[in-house]
Amino acid sequence: MSIRFYNTITRQKEAFQPLETGKVKMYTCGPTVYDYAHIGNYRTFIFEDLLRRYLEFRGFDVTQAMNLTDVDDNTIRRSRERSISLTELTNEFKTAFHADLKTLNMQAAHQYPEATNYIPEMIQMISELENRGYTYTAADGSVFFKIAKYEQYGKLANLNPDEMLSGGRVADDSYEKEGARDFALWKGYKPEDGDVHWESPWGQGRPGWHIECSVMSTELLGPHFDIHCGGVDNIFPHHENELAQSVCATGADFVNYWLHSEYLLVDNKKMSKSLNNFYTLRDLMELGYPAEAIRWMLITTHYRQKLNFSVSRLVESQKAVNRLREFFEKLKAYAGSGQDDAQDQIKTGGESFISAMDDDLNISGGLAAIFELVRWGNRSMVEGTLSSTGAKSLIDLIRKFDHVLAVLDMDSGLTVDIDAEFIEAKIVARKAARDNKDFASGDAIRDELVALGVELIDTPEGTKWKIK
RNA sequence: GGCGUGGUGCCCAAGUUGGUCUAAGGGAGUGGUUUGCAAAACCAUCAUUCGCCGGUUCGAAUCCGACCCACGCCUCCA
Predict the structure, then answer these.
(1) Closest nt to A297 (CA→C1')?
(2) Nearest residue to A293 (alpha-carbon basis) of A310, A316, A318
(3) Pairing with A360, which of A171, A219, A226, A338 sits 20 to 30 Å away (CA)?
(4) How long is the CA A337 to C1' B78 vector, in angstroms?
């Protein structure tokens, strides 16, 4: 059996076959760094994290590049609004982005190419397109890609260029184009661009949005690579345009598998900056929702399924994480001496997980396999039939699963306004009361701490506490 | 107008190349076990039913047709 992915360009699931055996090269569209990313944005990034982690789980050597768009209309406009330089603005949000990735326990990409570091290469690719006759230059020094010259245009998005409506937004476009659907490779300088401009064969200006990804993916992964991902809103126009540029410039095939994640919704509407219905990661953490609950919520709905965000889902997610973590902790503390080495369950559990996840990352099926194992393991521990080697084997398997899920070792990111010493002192006082059978005093201490957001858990190894 | 996705128990959600679905898994609920309390865990229970109508078939959540509803894309967007 092999891994199968739903490929946007063929609109069907296909067996995954990397270009080079055992190695996967993936390019994942990253953020435009003009503001904090919201959790809808993170849904896509976390899907990409899941994809990469699963490929690694299956033994592939993965190379991932994620671009950071640090020059475009939004970044320029925002930096001027704030009267700071473009670099100053984008550095602020690059830093914030990396911090958020860490909070959500995403693996760092191997490369984070930034658009402004690839201007010469972009000019080179545009020149190549010009040489091959795919461009024209407008009076203002802008260079456009002539989609009429590329007969495959529209294949990825499944759009027929002749039937595409010319909406109001096109009329707003102040660049001079021959065809309404042609897109800018290079934008001639305009006063609104301030000091953001570079010298080019077509005069002062700045790159169009799409060219950066064609150039940076080619530079870092080669002209032809395995997987390209992003949110479904990138299918058109961004990825369609990238595909056109790359194929026309290099003459090579571009991407073998296009994978796109669906939207995160709020009240059944797309979460977006323009609808102003978004939450940032920081917003949610300030409201007291741990990062692990957020990660779990985003990861456990299939990536091609719309996910309706709600607070109750975060609460449910936290409980699911807790169930897995409690199981893991119980296994580690298990001291029973049964005879069952759990080999049958480990075999079927592992196989079920893989066969589900191999099918286009069917995470629900994968989780079902894990939780069936959890229930069996808990029962075996309660009944004492599990052997200590069985417990160790289960721990190893859960660790492997957690390479993919990546929640067990997460820092909750939560804090309380009281220090650990205070809590420890309360625990000692409570123990003294309980040793004297003074349960009323002991319970009063428990209640006091609960009111402060701290939960006490009595275990055979003593009383532990956690932030609730 | 063109293209596309989805409607499964109280909530989330898998299953949709027909039978093993007497519909997985998580959360909530209910009843038990365990527990000084709490937490966790375990057991039992929780859809004769898969938006609606009709059809094909020995057999349909899964195929076909019509319809209803929700959402998205058609040059800001993850």
Answers:
(1) B12
(2) A318
(3) A219
(4) 50
- Nearest amino-acid residue to B40, taking CA and C1': A326
The whole-chain average pLDDT of chain A stands at 92
* Residue A448 neighbours by CB distance under 10 Å: 12
φ/ψ bin of A169: left (φ > 0), alpha (ψ from -120 to 50), beta (otherwise): alpha
d(CA A421, CA A418): 9
Q: SS3 for A263?
A: coil
Residues A226 and A373 in one domain: no
CATH label of the domain that carries residue A252: 3.40.50.620
Residue A339's CATH number: 1.10.730.10
Lookup: nucleotide whose C1' is closest to A237 CA: B75
Looking across all nucleic acid strands, the nucleotide with the smallest C1' to CA distance from residue A296 is B26
Residue A79 has pLDDT above 90, yes or no: yes
ipTM of the complex: 0.96
A375-CA/B45-C1' distance, Å: 17
Angstrom distance, A371 CA to B47 C1': 22
Structural domain includes residue A410: no
> Could you give the number of structural domains in chain A?
3
Q: Which residues contact A78 (CB under 8 A, 6 or more apart)?
A: A34, A35, A89
Residue-wise pLDDT tens digits, A293-338 = 999 999 999 999 999 999 999 999 999 999 999 999 999 999 998 9
Q: Are A83 and A127 part of one and the same domain?
A: yes
Last residue of a domain, one of A261, A291, A306: A261
Residue A372 in any domain: the answer is yes
Kindly report, residue by residue over A82-108, the tens digit of the pLDDT: 999 999 999 999 999 999 999 999 999
Scanning every strand, the nucleotide with its C1' closest to A324's CA turns out to be: B26
CA gap A216, A307 in Å, rounded: 31
**Whole-number distance in Å between A359 CA and B63 C1':** 22
Q: Which nucleotides of B are covered by protein (CB under 7 A)?
A: 1-6, 11-15, 24-28, 36-43, 70-78
pLDDT at residue A169 tops 60: no
Tell me the residue ranges of DSSP E strands in A359-444: none
Q: Across residues A387-394, what is the average pLDDT?
A: 96
User: Which residue range(s) make up the domain with A424?
Assistant: 420-467
